[in-house]
Design a protein that fits this description.
2 domains; about 60% helix; mainly alpha; single chain; about 200 residues; globular
Length: about 200
């Protein structure tokens, strides 16, 4: 279902902000190729069609394709639906590709808490990614999507390794240890810190 925005008249700036957030998230998940996000109706429709091919936000994409000239309200609703769907939709077949563009294989394997040999088998499709590893991979993709608005790839890698006062002088990577679960307190604090950068960049 496509739920219309509660804001009756979203501004072009709000549409652009949502389009950037959706595009960065989809890029980090490996669903779209790196590129500049655009917020025109045709661009949003193209993004919706691309993520639909990965089985994400299919009904929303179908809805927007049935609207010849979507209003800002409809575009905002679609983008919010895509963002929420991406948040809830691990896609390891794509996410290995998206994250290996940012991290070296050894570093990504350490963050996901698997061996490099397992990473290569999962990335190649030789073996299906187990649910636990898929959940951790998806979490990392979401964090990288959040960070992409403030850091380049080098900065993202450094962000994970630097101690943060908000994390009691621990690094984000140090809170992602020993078969960690995205719903654990430590990873949730890491995500909140990354999300705070999205809020700052939107102001």
């Amino acid at each position: 279902m496509l739920h219309l925005s509660s804001d009756p008249n979203p501004t072009d700036r709000e549409i652009a902000r949502l389009a950037i957030e959706a595009s960065r998230r989809a890029e980090a998940m490996g669903l779209v190729e790196p590129g500049e996000a655009r917020a025109g109706a045709a661009d949003v429709r193209q993004l919706a069609d691309t993520v639909r091919r990965a089985g994400v936000a299919t009904s929303a994409a179908d809805t927007i394709n049935n609207v010849e000239r979507p209003s800002n309200r409809e575009l905002a609703a679609l983008l919010k639906t895509i963002i929420a769907a991406l948040e809830a939709s691990p896609a390891p077949a794509f996410e290995w590709k998206g994250l290996i563009r940012v991290f070296a294989a050894e570093d990504l394997a350490r963050l996901v808490d698997i061996s490099v040999s397992s990473l290569k088998r999962y990335q190649s499709g030789e073996r299906e990614t187990p649910d636990g590893a898929a959940a951790r991979l998806h979490f990392l993709a979401l964090v990288v999507g959040d960070l992409a608005g403030s850091y380049n790839d080098v900065g993202i890698r450094r962000w994970f390794e630097r101690k943060r006062t908000q994390l009691d002088n621990r690094s984000p990577a140090s809170l992602l240890k020993r078969d960690w679960d995205p719903d654990d307190d430590g990873p949730q604090r890491v995500r909140e810190l990354a999300r705070s950068l999205v809020t700052l960049s939107a102001t």
